Amino acid sequence: MLKNILLAVLLIGLLPEHSYSQSSENEGCVLVLKEAEKFYDEGKLEKIPSILDACVESGFSREEKIKAYRLLTLTYLFDDNKVMAEQSIENMLKLDPEHVINEAIDPIEFIYLYNEYRTEPIFTYGINGGVNISNVRLIEQYSLDNDNLNTDGSNNTYFNKSGFQGGLQGGMMLLKNMHLNVGLTFKTTKIRFTQDYYLNSFDNSADTLSSFGNLESIENHSWLRLPINFTYDIKITPKIYTYVRVGGHLGSLVSAKSTLTRTYSTNSSVAPVTGPPEDIRIRRNLLNYGLTGGLGFKYRIPKGNIFLDVRYNYSLRNLNVGDQYKGGTAFPVNQNLLYKYYSVDDNIIMDDLAFTIGYSRFFYKPKKKKKSTDKKSETSYKLNIESEK
């Protein structure tokens, strides 16, 4: 028992000593960095690498390491040691891939060397979510009612309703400011449909046309979508970008259900007819595809951005199964839809307008550009400097 107590006291006594020694080491490295900066100002370049090496290995904080690698880069540049200068700036960019050049204080040699490196994120990944509003395009109207007097579809009305979406996205840089983006999105859409039923004489006389009832259908869908598109960024400020989006999407229908209600005119004593949601997935195309276009804004934050955009998804395929009324018979037949609610599907296409907010995380891999690109960037930088004079 006494042995355990003595051991515990010894350990407690050693902890402050270790903490103090580590603190002393950090304070000593801070002084070393200040001394190295002093040597640089005095032109004593040969002394800088030797006094910084130990603290770079162990002793500097992240911010102090970045300053030390920048100082080493400058030291080797002015000592005409290009190999060690490249090694130092690469180490700096690994710690600080979003390093910002300050043309007012950075030597031009440092700027040239920095411009020889790829400092844009090579790919991004993140999450997004938002809301959408469906937009139905009526291709052809069908009805169990007499449609001869309503060929313009005036007795069939679609109301665009809202849904939501959320998912994951990733992107990779193809060219400067241009990215290829792919994602996986879970999406819900909704439409509301109403249809008036009419009674009329056998000779289709408009004088005897009268409404006797109404059908309402609330249709809900859930999808898995694979968006594939290109974005092009336009810089507004160092932190704010706008961008355009062009591409397409491929969607798989997960579920489709319709809640129907058939009601009669106000002077009728017949009760409304309704029931649980009908599964209509088999009556819908399970695969859909289309085009996507949009605009958005990005706000840069450390190692990522927050974005907000609007996209219009234009479908290239009917929502419902095509040619389902050939020969006067609906296929596949749903007894409840046909005989309980007097409901048949129109041929429609459903687009949607989506509002999305999301977050993208950047992945960097600083790398030296090809020589042809280096010369071009250095030449363009020189021209910019001369044009500003």
Give the rounded overall mean pLDDT.
Answer: 82
SS element count, helices: 7
Oligomeric nature of the chains: single chain
Which series of helices and strands comes N to C?
Answer: HHHHHEEEEEEEEEEEHEEH
* Structural class designation: alpha+beta
Total beta-strand segments: 13
Strand content: 35-45%
Task: Give the CATH architecture of the largest domain.
Answer: Beta Barrel
Distance between the termini: 81 Å
Can you describe this structure in just a few lines?
With 389 residues, the chain is an alpha+beta fold. The chain is 29% helix and 42% strand.
Please explain how this structure is put together.
- The chain has 389 residues and is α+β, with helices and mostly antiparallel strands.
- It is built from 7 helices and 13 strands.
- The protein has helices at residues 2-42, 48-57, 62-78, 82-95, 108-115, 335-340, 371-388, and strands at 117-118, 123-140, 156-160, 162-175, 178-199, 210-235, 240-264, 273-274, 278-279, 287-301, 304-315, 347-363, 367-368.
- Strand 10 and strand 11 (304-315) form a beta hairpin.
- Helix 1 (2-42) runs antiparallel to helix 2 (48-57) and helix 2 (48-57) packs antiparallel against helix 3 (62-78).
- The strands form 2 sheets. An 8-stranded antiparallel barrel has the order 2-4-5-6-7-10-11-12.
- The chain is rod-shaped and about 100 Å long.
